[in-house]
Amino acid sequence: MRTLLLMRHAKSDWGFEDLSDFARPLNKRGQRAARRMGQWLADNNLTPDHVICSTACRAQETLHGVRQRTQLSNRQISYEKRGYLADLNTLLQILAEAPETDLVLLIGHNPGMEALLTYLCDAEPLRSTTKTAMPTATLAQITLPDEWQDLQRHSGELVQLIQPKTLDA
């Protein structure tokens, strides 16, 4: 079995009117949330073997916060231009190209991350309790079959869905 960690980027800063959406950084809350999620990964022995991160500024800054609390090296990280606002099919293609490792962290954006979660695990019922199943900095832990290239609808099992606001400060 393989483990996929889906993480939506942390809360971005909308205070820069002159910046493009792609260039928006994290706000202070987002920076804290990214570090908190990195600490949770470290505390739960879920430091990924490989990270695939969108090239958008807010996704890269989320990864930076995670890295402050985990032992990730540069060679464990790939930046994926196609990850910026990727749809379900693009995310599946990115995962199909993932290295043959057992634990991958994918950092990206909604609505694609939520679409991938729903596709792999039928997360539709999660939306009935909140506006979105993947608020900013949320991390989904999913177990999957052994092949990244063969991810089918509902082939994953959602182990847990962690939000930074539910963790102790």
Main traits of this protein?
169 residues, Rossmann fold, globular
CATH domain topology: Rossmann fold
Q: Using the CA coordinates, give the radius of gyration.
A: 15 Å
Assign the CATH architecture.
3-Layer(aba) Sandwich
Number of domains: 1
Summarize the structure.
This protein has 169 residues and is an alpha/beta fold. Helix content is 27%, strand content 20%. It has four helices and six strands.
Report on this structure.
- The chain has helices at residues 28-43, 57-67, 88-96, 112-121, and strands at residues 2-8, 50-54, 77-80, 103-108, 139-144, 157-162.
- It is of the alpha/beta class and 169 residues long.
- It has one domain (2-166): Phosphoglycerate mutase-like (Rossmann fold, 3-Layer(aba) Sandwich).
- Strands 3-2-4-1-5-6 form a six-stranded mixed β-sheet, with helices on both faces.
- The protein is globular.
List the helices and strands and how they pair.
Elements: E1 2-8, H1 28-43, E2 50-54, H2 57-67, E3 77-80, H3 88-96, E4 103-108, H4 112-121, E5 139-144, E6 157-162
Parallel strand pairs: 1-4, 2-3, 2-4
Antiparallel strand pairs: 1-5, 5-6
